[in-house]
Amino acid sequence: LGLTTTLICLLLGYPVAYHLARTDSRWKGLLYVAVLSPLLVGVVVRSFGWLILLSNNGVVNKALIDLGLVDSALALMNNRFGVTLALVHVFLPFMILPLIGTIQSIDPNLEAAGRSLGASRLKVFQTIYLPLSWPGIQAGTILVFVLSLSAYVTPVMLGGAQVKTMSVLVVQSLIDNFQWPTGAALALILAGSGGAAVLLYARLTRRAMRGIE
User: pLDDT, tens digit, for every residue of 179-189?
Assistant: First the structure.
């Protein structure tokens, strides 16, 4: 779940970060507000908002039924889809903000030089922007992965009993069942596995950067 959320945030966040870092539009301030707006509302309120949208009698299902696109309500929550969608909405700004800072530090003349030498936009991205923006990608992906790995409110509210994450199991063991040894063991496993994944990712990206260079 953490890996899926991170990949989706990266795919959605990089184009947005690139646009915000390079645009001179007078609407740039409003775009920043749109990116930061999820952070202005608590995660509980945001999760309740997704409950209203994704429930069987929610806005999305009601609109689909009224338009005749579906005959019955779709299962949009109490599954991994609903949890992933809400997590992406919650943590997308944490991917975009590090990328904006990194992309802004890249000299735009490098892109112009690459294009003048006959390179396509894709080639310029692969040889210039991707290597130079790796620090922002690494920071954003690690941040989103760690936050989504330890998320509790969103999986509980949108996953119900169908989506069991480690953080949910830890809280259930400690608070609901008063199984302190089990909860402590699960918390250590969560922290250890998350730390090992981040360390492995950092080493792999360091090797990839050396290959690109």
Answer: 888 888 988 88
